[in-house]
Design goal:
Blueprint: H1 2-16, H2 35-41, E1 50-51, E2 58-59, E3 67-74, H3 81-92, E4 97-100, H4 102-107, H5 109-117, E5 121-124, H6 131-134, H7 138-156, E6 162-163, H8 174-182, E7 186-187, E8 192-193, H9 204-220, E9 226-230, H10 244-269, E10 272-274
Parallel strand pairs: 3-4, 3-9, 3-10, 4-5, 6-7, 8-9
Antiparallel strand pairs: 1-2
Helix pairs in contact: 3-10, 7-8, 9-10
This protein binds zinc ion.
Residues 74-75, 125, 129, 166, 234 line the site of zinc ion.
Length: 285
């Protein structure tokens, strides 16, 4: 009799067991619910909008990332071409970066002040721009860089930590980089050039074409265009001594000025925003 009672209790326990699982509740008709009905019955909200982490309010999806381009001008300030370039930049409302040479800063301090007043960025491009002097060794390079920074500081009231090594990037060896980095300097190179330092005459059309070709190339590499143009005269060219190379160099600065509006219009039509170089500028290569 006892064993019959035990078997009866065991049978009751097996029949109750499924009610302990977490399976979805059955519908009134006893049929399994479709997923949508299950979600509704549990009042689960699937919110597809983006909410602000600050306010919790819905906000628009983030805009597409800004397409940045860097317009950079080396070797100034120059009493003639820098002023023309500044006028064009002002007309288009465009920000650029001027990689200045210390000796030229001392010759044209008011132009450097105007560069800063009009919202452009300034970078160090050595004091002497004399390849023999600055590439004699890392210490010589650093000394020249610091001299330029003194000239900048004396003119605008503060030094800058961004610099562009003069000449080919190949001249700037890792040992130079190591030393100047230890002193807080940040290098800015370039990946698009107007080809305006050719010793032969370069036309505005050629400079525009060089920039367009260069921008299209770096776009394929998913890079940010850092465009190299020149507003000034390399000190070591000796522009006070007339000659064919000097004549062409000055001619090419005129071409730079003539090319600039078309370069800006090309980049604007392509959706670029112009920004000034700083320590957050991405590596060119
Ligand atoms: Zn230069």
């Amino acid at each position: 009799m006892k064993s019959n009672l035990f078997l009866w209790l065991l049978l009751c326990f097996i029949m109750i067991l499924p009610g302990c699982t977490n399976l979805p509740a059955s519908s009134a008709a006893g049929l399994p619910m479709e997923p949508a009905a299950f979600i509704q019955s549990k009042k689960i909200n699937i919110n597809t909008s983006v909410t602000s982490p600050d306010t919790g309010q819905p906000q628009n999806k983030p805009d597409k990332p800004v397409k940045k381009a860097y317009l950079t001008f080396d070797d100034g300030p120059n009493s003639h071409f820098t002023l023309q370039i500044l006028d064009i930049l002002k007309k288009y409302g465009v920000t650029a970066t001027f990689m200045v040479v210390g000796q030229n800063v001392e010759k044209n301090p008011t132009i450097l002040k105007r560069i800063v007043t009009e919202g452009h960025h300034v970078a160090n491009h050595s004091y002497s721009h004399d390849y023999k002097k600055i590439y004699a060794g890392p210490e010589a390079f650093l000394t020249d860089l610091q001299l330029c920074n003194q000239a900048i500081n004396n003119t605008i009231g503060h030094p800058v930590n961004v610099f562009r090594p003069p000449g080919s990037p190949q001249n700037f060896k890792p040992s130079y980089q190591k030393l100047v980095s230890a002193h807080g300097y940040h290098p800015i190179s370039w990946n698009v050039t107007g080809g305006d330092t050719d010793p032969r005459p370069v036309t505005p059309e050629q400079i525009v074409e060089n920039v367009i070709t260069g921008v299209e190339k770096v776009e394929k590499m998913k890079k940010t265009p850092i465009i190299l143009l020149h507003d000034g005269a390399e000190v070591d060219l000796g522009l006070d001594k007339p000659g064919t190379i000097v004549h062409n160099y000055i001619n090419n600065r005129k071409s730079d000025v003539a090319a600039l509006p078309k370069i800006i219009e090309f980049l604007q039509a392509r959706g670029y925003t112009f920004v000034g170089a700083d320590e957050n500028t991405p590596p060119a290569w």
